[in-house]
Structures are given as C-alpha cells and as structure tokens.
Amino acid sequence: MFLSVSVLAVLLVPGAWAQSSSSRVGVVVEAKNITLPEGSKAVLPCHSPRMVWTQDRLKDRQRVVHWDVVRSSPEYSVERVLDMSPGGRQRVYNSFNKGRVAVPDSAFTDGNFSLVINNVITTDRGVYTCNLHHHYCQIHQSIQIQLNVTKSARKERRYWDGEKTVFVVLLGSSVVLPCVNRRPLWREGLQEDQQQVAHWDFQPPGVRPDRADRLVDLYASGERRDYGPLFARRKMYVEEDAFTLGDFSLSISDLKPVDKGLYSCHLHHHYCGLSERRIFRLIVGPPLPPAPTTAPEISENEIPEPSRSLH
Ligand SMILES: *[C@@H]1O[C@H](CO)[C@@H](O)[C@H](O)[C@H]1NC(C)=O
Ligand SMILES: *[C@@H]1O[C@H](CO)[C@@H](O)[C@H](O)[C@H]1NC(C)=O
Ligand SMILES: *[C@@H]1O[C@H](CO)[C@@H](O)[C@H](O)[C@H]1NC(C)=O
C-alpha cells in the first residue's frame, strides 16, 4: 500500500528472448530483430540518460521529501505542509503547525518519512501526499492518504477506498500518516562511486544464454575491459565518452555471417537501482549488389515496452 518498491517487470517476450531473460537480472526494455547485409556496418542502439555519469557531489541536497495537502473545503487549496533534505532541518510552512506536525528526524537514515500530526484539528482534513524526489537518479515517488476528522470515537477507522488509504481520526488525538521506503537509495551510507557499469554480451546461435560471451565491460570510472580481439581490431566499437552521453551503442563493422546471434546491452546503476537490458537478434543477409541503388533493408520488429515499475 505504500511506495511500491521496484519490482522486476514481468517480461512479456516470446520464445528465445524469454529464455535469456530468466537467466539474468534486469528488466528487458527493448528486444529487436535486425537484418543487415553482409559487409555493412551495424549500430546496435543502447542509450539511457539515467546512466550519464555525474557524480552526486552535492550528495544530500539531491534528495528531498515533502508532504503536501489538498483540501476541498471550505474551498479548494493546495498547501505545502513541510519539506526536508538530508542534513537540512525540516521546514514547516504553516506557523500553526510548528511543534505539532513533523516527520521523524531520522527519516533519511531509516527510511521512515511518516507524517506525525498531534492534536488533530478539523482543518487538518484533506488529501495528503508524501513525495520523495531523488534528483540525481531522476526518481520520484509519491503516495496519497486522506485524513478525515471526527468528533465521535465510534467513527474512528482506517480503510482503503480503492485509490488511497483513508484515516478517520478523533478530533484532538494524534495520527501518523505512514510513508516508509527503506530502499538504500533513500537512506544514508551508500557509495555511488564504481557502481555504474555497462556491458555487452554476445550469444552465437545454438549457445545457451548462460554461456554467452562477454564482449566488453565499461565502468563509469573510465576503465574498460574488452575480451577477445574484436575491439582491438576495431571490428567492434563503443564510443569513448559513453558515460558522458549515456550512449553505449555497439558498432560492428564489415558484418560477416559469423557475426549473427543475440547481442545484449546491460546497463546497471546500482546506486539508483537501475538495471536494464536491450537485446538484439542480428541477422546477416546476403551482401548488397556492387552498385546499390536502394538503402539497406532493416527490418525491426519491436516489442512494446514492458510496463515499468515505479522507480
Ligand atoms: C515511523 O515513524 C512513526 C513516528 O515516529 C512511528 O509511529 C511508526 O511506527 C514508524 N513506522 C515504521 C514502519 O517504522
Ligand atoms: C471523508 O471525507 C470525504 C471528503 O470530505 C468524504 O467524502 C468521505 O465520505 C469521508 N469519509 C468518512 C469515512 O468520513
Ligand atoms: C525474431 O526472429 C525470430 C526468428 O528468427 C522470431 O522467432 C522472433 O519472434 C522474432 N522476434 C521479434 C521481436 O519479432
């Protein structure tokens, strides 16, 4: 009922794709067949702006929690209740709420961002949202809770109305509107450095996914490791500034029938909880006639993006 923690999306991919999906971690965000003529150059796309390497130098300023309330009576209004960043004090906007409404000071340590309201008054009624923003990781999460106030203890209750939790609370009592997210991302102590990595794998036809060959590992630190002679011979190529642009596309020149198979690009940003895979089945067709008058035929069969979880 609270912030949905990232769950690997169910992979709706047919046949061979599905096999390789189950064997490794990561959400398949793209799966395509690409057919190119022998002798041509393939560029297998793999982009993600979220992989761009910008160190979280400001650390704590990049995260913020804020609670807002929407009231429908006496008239419609939206109000910021409070906000807080790690290392900063919480800001309570309405002076009447100072000392009465708060989030635990340990919020960014233990992931408990719940809003505590003491001595509930009638005008506390409204729909509250707990919003967590991680600017560096471009992750935004929010949940809603409705607060109603009653004068009769008999009417106190909490329930789920199909969209959000509704709390009916006794006038003058205290209430905790829950907002808990224990993902390490929202808490302290995680080192971002060295936790961003991209790699490409190649699986020739008839080879099991777990026997795929690693082609190259790319680290945000600038380190690269390529395996076999293909990169040294410039047969394969990934841009030097991949992490600056978030572009990890693999170029393969002078295609030969032996190049056919499944290529997969894996992007991992552990700090931000990003783990994505893109899979391409490369098919090498007959070479083009000597004086080509038409552009190479590219057949791409796209699978719709699987529903992505809330990050
Ligand atoms: C979160 O903090 C509130 C206020 O301190 C507390 O009442 C509640 O039990 C905590 N929730 C969890 C899940 O720790
Ligand atoms: C809570 O308040 C809303 C809006 O004022 C109202 O529509 C709803 O019936 C109330 N629910 C309860 C259980 O009091
Ligand atoms: C790609 O081609 C294979 C056969 O080579 C086929 O089974 C599969 O369905 C195709 N995938 C897509 C996404 O069209």
Topology (elements, then pairings):
Elements: H1 15-23, E1 27-37, E2 42-44, E3 63-71, E4 77-84, E5 91-92, E6 101-102, H2 107-110, E7 115-117, E8 126-134, E9 139-150, E10 157-160, E11 165-170, E12 175-177, E13 196-203, E14 213-219, E15 224-226, E16 236-237, H3 242-245, E17 250-252, E18 261-269, E19 274-285
Parallel strand pairs: 1-19, 9-11
Antiparallel strand pairs: 2-17, 3-4, 3-8, 4-5, 6-7, 7-12, 8-9, 10-11, 13-14, 13-18, 14-15, 16-17, 18-19
The chain binds 2-acetamido-2-deoxy-beta-D-glucopyranose (3 copies).
One 2-acetamido-2-deoxy-beta-D-glucopyranose binds at residues 104, 112, 114, 116, 176, 180.
Protein name: Matrix remodeling-associated protein 8
Signal peptide: 1-18
Domain Ig-like: 14-150
Beta percentage is 35-45%
In the CATH hierarchy, what is the architecture of the largest domain at level 2?
Sandwich
Question: Please, what is the average pLDDT?
Answer: 83
Distance between the termini: 15 Å
Q: Nearest-angstrom radius of gyration?
A: 26 Å
Question: Which tags fit this structure?
Answer:
311 residues, mainly beta, Immunoglobulin-like, 2 domains, 7-stranded mixed β-sheet, 6-stranded mixed β-sheet, 3 helices, 19 strands, 37% strand, elongated, disordered N terminus, binds 2-acetamido-2-deoxy-beta-D-glucopyranose
What does this structure look like?
- By secondary structure, the protein is mainly beta.
- The chain has two domains: 15-55 and 192-285, Immunoglobulins (Immunoglobulin-like, Sandwich), CATH 2.60.40.10; 59-186, Immunoglobulin-like.
- The protein is 5% helix and 37% strand.
- The longest helix is centred in the first third of the chain and has 9 residues, at 15-23.
- One 2-acetamido-2-deoxy-beta-D-glucopyranose binds next to β1.
